[in-house]
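Worked example 3 (structure in, sequence out).
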């Protein structure tokens, strides 16, 4: 049974906010794996947080180069390269 509708605002209690973050992070990772399996696609998820380094999850061991806000697959043509 659900606990009701959640207000979309910052969670004031830091412990509760961290626990919610971890739980939702696990859920997003599971959805990424499901999407990859069901649709036969390579997928990547990057999560940025001010207090930590970016978290990166990849499916199928995809080789990616990650810069702030952009992912480049080694097989793709980069616009800045000759």
């Amino acid at each position: 049974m659900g606990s009701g509708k959640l207000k979309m605002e910052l969670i004031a209690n830091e412990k509760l906010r961290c626990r919610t973050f971890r739980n939702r992070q696990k859920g997003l990772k599971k959805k990424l794996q499901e999407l990859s399996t069901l649709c036969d696609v390579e997928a990547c998820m990057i999560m940025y947080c001010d207090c930590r380094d970016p978290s990166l999850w990849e499916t199928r061991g995809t080789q990616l180069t990650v810069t702030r806000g952009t992912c480049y697959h080694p097989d793709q043509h980069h616009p800045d390269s000759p």
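Notes: The CA atoms of residues 2 and 20 lie 15 Å apart. The longest strand covers residues 52-58.
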